[in-house]
Amino acid sequence: KPKEDKEWVKFKAKHITSQSVADFNCNKTMNDPDFTPDGQCKPVNTFIHSNTGPVKDICRRASGRVNKSSTQQFPLTTCNKPIRCKYSQSNTTNFICITCRDNYPVHFVKIGKC
Predict the structure, then answer these.
(1) Which candidate in 57, 107, 110, 111 is catalytic?
(2) The CATH number of the domain where 33 resides is what?
(3) Which residue among 11, 15, 56, 82 is the active-site one?
(4) Among residues 10, 35, 52, 95, which is most buried (max CB within 10 A)?
(5) Could you tell me the pTM of the whole model?
């Protein structure tokens, strides 16, 4: 079994959550020490409420480094504009555009089609 791409491992940790939209809490997640290793609060981050399978499938048959749009919509939560690390939270359901590298998602480009 080939070793998982390091960037994919980081992508999963940063952008994929098994929590439901209703249970998800931006402040709790974004201020987790694992999420802010340097102690700085990130200005914005989008989370995909999904198992890893459907997200990884977006990059099936993607060779090299390429941006791809999902064919299905995902429930998404965006945490943004922290004031002293307190985030506002917005939810939507939409397609996503991600950067794939050799069949693995490695970067979240934007909400919506590429």
Answers:
(1) 107
(2) 3.10.130.10
(3) 15
(4) 95
(5) 0.92
d(CA 83, CA 73): 30
Q: Is residue 1 part of a domain?
A: no
What is the full DSSP assignment across 44-73? EEEEEES-HHHHHHTTTT--SEEEEE-SS-
**Among 25, 70, 63, which residue's Cα sits nearest to residue 47?**
25
Number of domains composing the chain: 1
Run of H or E including 13: helix 6-15
Question: Does 45 carry a binding-site annotation?
Answer: yes
Q: Is 43 annotated as a binding residue?
A: yes
- Rounded to whole angstroms, how far apart are CA atoms 58 and 47? 16
In the residue annotation, 49 being an active-site residue is answered as: no
**38 or 55, which is more confident?**
55
pLDDT value at position 108?
A: 97
